[in-house]
Design goal:
The mean pLDDT is 94. It is built from 3 helices and 6 strands, in the order E-E-E-H-E-H-E-H-E. It has helices at residues 35-52, 69-83, 103-116; strands at residues 4-6, 14-18, 23-30, 57-67, 91-99, 120-125. 22% of the residues are buried.
Length: 129
């Protein structure tokens, strides 16, 4: 399966999905005008990956400094595709990174965790001064 790498812009995150290395990252700012269109290739990639993955576990890292409602919906769709693999006994870790003083981003991660009924790992960091 080919690696998916979408480079970030001022309004869209970097998406890096590599099945061979087991790397699944969404980083940056996610405020695209049309999140459904922006995330379409990542959603299709996740759907194909979830249908064919045969490993024991996977980790998804998400580190966003801002995201809009459309992005939340699109990321929830992608995560849902990955989380369906739990029915095959695959352990899935969602590592939600947030800047230590950014309670809004942490709250969004907590809300998504509740919606998906899947615990997230929350990792805080501090920007260098």
């Amino acid at each position: 399966m080919e690696t998916l790498h979408i480079h970030h812009t001022k309004t869209t995150p970097s998406i890096f999905f590599d099945a061979t290395k087991g790397e699944f990252r969404i980083t940056g700012r996610s405020i695209p005008a049309d999140a459904t269109v922006f995330f379409a290739s990542a959603d299709k990639w996740a759907e194909t990956f979830a249908a064919t993955f045969s490993g024991d576990f996977m980790t998804i890292e998400i580190m966003l400094d801002h995201l809009n409602t459309g992005s939340v919906r699109s990321i929830l769709t992608i995560l849902t595709r990955f989380l369906r693999m739990k029915s095959r006994g695959i352990k899935i870790i969602v590592d939600w990174h947030y800047e230590v003083e950014d309670e809004d981003i942490r709250d969004k991660g907590e809300e998504m965790s509740l919606i998906l009924e899947h615990p997230f790992k929350f990792t805080s960091f501090k920007y260098p001064e």
